[in-house]
Design goal:
By secondary structure, the protein is α+β, with helices and mostly antiparallel strands. 15% of the residues lie in helices and 23% in strands. It has three helices and ten strands; from the N terminus they run ββββαβαββββαβ. The protein has a five-stranded mixed sheet. The protein has a three-stranded antiparallel sheet with strand order 1-5-4, with no helix packed on it. Strands 2-3 form a two-stranded antiparallel sheet. Strand 2 and strand 3 form a beta hairpin. The radius of gyration is 19 Å and the shape is elongated. The termini are far apart.
């Protein structure tokens, strides 16, 4: 199976004998089955490592979940909006490839995780926001909306800015500081579960 990178959109022809190569956290892995809701890359297509080919996935524009734009960092939002303006509906079509500069791939990978891994109410992740800030992103128990809550890191530890209108389930973190992210996560309302592939961990923030 040979595909050649170009600046034009190209139809994808999967051979049943050759499983598609899909990306997981930036690493190409093999999958035994295609899925419309799985990002794909073509490992034998481009000799130029600065250009990555990805298949469309139906989660952009009109297919985006409610609130998705609010839980992206500013750089991620810029990439997604710019590429949607450029490719429009093709980004939602798994039968087409589109070219990405390698530097844009993390934004699309994070976006696709946010679109597909927060279906279950109570799903959450700790993410970077703008200008070095952090946020807790979670799927509300009451609505399908993805919500963001400001998260502050200081010498006192991690502090989640819980809204006054939040229900009593958030009392475990309301007004408190935590030495580690794991401690903060353990105090979140019962039933919340972390989407690990989209979430920061203490090891990744030790430079603070």
């Amino acid at each position: 199976m040979h595909r050649q990178a170009s600046r034009m959109l190209q139809p994808v022809h999967h051979s049943p004998a050759v499983p598609a190569a899909s990306t997981s956290r930036g690493v190409a892995v093999r999958s035994n089955a295609d899925s419309a809701l799985r990002p794909h890359a073509v490992t034998n297509a481009a000799a130029d490592a600065s250009v990555i080919l990805m298949c469309g996935m139906p989660c952009y524009g009109e297919h985006a979940p409610p609130g998705i734009s609010n839980v992206l960092s500013a750089p991620e939002r810029f990439v997604i909006e710019a590429d949607y303006r450029r490719h429009r509906g093709y980004l939602n079509n798994p039968e087409y490839l589109f070219n990405l500069d390698a530097g844009k791939v993390p934004a699309h990978a994070a976006y696709r995780v946010l679109c597909t891994q927060f279906q279950r109410p109570g799903s959450f992740a700790i993410r970077q926001a703008e200008q070095g800030a952090f946020m807790l992103v979670h799927r509300s128990q009451r609505t399908p909306q993805l919500l963001r809550t400001a998260l502050e890191h200081s010498d006192r530890g991690w502090h989640l800015h819980v809204a006054d209108t939040a229900n009593s389930g958030w009392n475990g973190v309301r007004g408190r500081h935590f030495e580690t992210l794991d401690a903060l996560k353990g105090a979140l309302p019962p039933g919340m579960h972390e989407v690990a592939g989209a979430s920061l961990h203490d090891l990744e923030t030790t430079h603070l």
